[in-house]
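Handoff note, outgoing to incoming analyst
You'll be picking up this chain. Sequence as last confirmed:
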Amino acid sequence: MLARMTRPAKDRVQTGALPLANPNVNANVTATVKTSETAKSKPQTAAETPEAASGVRREPRVRFRMRVMQDDTIALGPGKVQLLEAVREHGSISAAARSLNMSYRRAWLLMDELNRALESPATVSEHGGQSGGGSMLTPVGEEIIRLYRGIEERAAAACAPEIAALRKLVKG
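Most recent structure output, in case you need it:
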C-alpha cells in the first residue's frame, strides 16, 4: 500500500537543481536518508522501536525525490507520482485518495494542478454511470511514472559509492 509521508526539513539533503529545456521549469532533486519507516502514527522514541527491543540495528535507507518546478509551483514531484500510481491501481481519484490517507479534495486539486502543468493531461475521468465513474491514466500519465521512477533508480545507482559513504555516517 502506498502511503503519503512527510519528513522534517532537517532530514533532507538538497543536491541541486537541474535546468530543463523550459527556463521556467527546474527539476530539484532531494535525497533523504532514513533510518526507519515513516508512518502516520505516534512518533516512537529509539527505546520504543521493535529494533531496539531485539537489539537489531537498522541500516539507513536513501531515497531520491525529484521535483519539477514551474515557477514556484511543484508541477511534478513524489506525491503526484504516488497519486498517479494509486489512480492506476484503484481506478478513481477518490479510491486513490483513500489509499493514501488523503482527502478527495486534496487529491483532486493535485491532479488538476498536474494536468494544468502538462502539455497533455495525465488522467482522464468518466463521470457517473452505473459504476459511478472513475479515472484512468493517459499514456502521458504512464510515461510520467516510468520516467520518474527510472530517474530515481538511475540516480541511486550512479551515486552508490557516495550513498554507501553517507550511510556510514548516519546512526542506525
